[in-house]
Design a protein that fits this description.
Layout: E1 2-3, E2 10-11, E3 16-17, E4 22-23, E5 28-29, E6 34-35, E7 40-41, E8 46-47, E9 52-53, E10 58-59, E11 64-65, E12 70-71, E13 76-77, E14 82-83, E15 88-89, E16 115-117, E17 122-123, E18 128-129, E19 133-135, E20 140-141, E21 146-147, E22 155-158, E23 163-167, E24 176-177, E25 183-184, E26 191-195, E27 198-201
Parallel strand pairs: 2-5, 3-6, 4-7, 5-8, 6-9, 8-11, 9-12, 10-13, 11-14, 12-15, 13-16, 14-17, 15-18, 16-19, 17-20, 18-21, 20-22
Antiparallel strand pairs: 1-4, 22-23, 24-25, 25-26, 26-27
């Protein structure tokens, strides 16, 4: 990680990157995006036009946060995560603009809860992850889905609320039964077996 400015970090002139944010080598922050104070992006990340990365959010290497996605603190995104256009990661279980007495609520009036997205997982366009939830390794959340419960590793979930309809491999392709109680990727030929927390790559 290198603090701004760095010669191999691209930040559009219209982007708003706090001086305390840390941006990894080879990363790009595009037009009208905002990266808040204390946020940390790894190497070779892309933050698309109009996207928002909240205070102290932790982002791994090779992460893509597409246009107008909203990643609210204290979210954590592992290496290789894909956040689709206009996806939202929330941070408040009981959102209110005002207290019961009508006074405006401030930062200290609520407890932040975060969304965790594990290695290689993908969140489809306009999907919503309602904190606190964890999206497992290499899982795929379909476009427009609303995630309200943890998603197992390699699961494919769709709908409102999101429900599992299958499994996906590391290539993002839906897996097929291999006839031996496991699963096979039709693109790569990789085989997977079911474990307690989802699928694991068979060795």
């Amino acid at each position: 990680m290198t603090a701004l400015p760095a010669s191999d970090v691209r930040v559009a002139a219209s982007a708003d990157v706090d001086p305390t944010a840390r941006i990894g080598a080879g990363s790009s922050v595009w037009h009208l995006a905002q990266v808040r104070e204390g946020a940390s992006l790894g190497r070779s990340c892309v933050v698309g036009r109009g996207a928002y990365v909240g205070s102290d959010v932790r982002v791994g290497d090779h992460v893509k946060i597409q246009n107008y996605a909203l990643v609210y603190e204290p979210a954590e995104l592992a290496d290789g995560v894909f956040v689709g256009p206009a996806a939202v990661l929330t941070n408040d279980q009981h959102p209110r603009a005002v207290a019961p007495d009508g006074t405006p609520k401030g930062r200290d009036d609520w407890e932040q809860v975060g969304v965790t997205v594990r290695e290689g997982a993908s969140l489809g366009a306009r999907s919503v992850c309602v904190a606190p939830v964890t999206v497992g390794r290499w899982a795929t959340v379909g476009a427009g889905a609303v995630v309200v419960a943890d998603v197992p590793d390699h699961a494919l979930v769709v709908g409102v609320p999101a429900r599992q309809i299958g499994w996906v491999g590391r290539a993002g392709v839906r897996l097929q039964p291999d006839g031996e109680g496991g699963w096979r990727c039709p693109r790569t030929g990789e085989r997977y077996r079911e474990e307690r927390d989802g699928l694991e790559l068979a060795t």
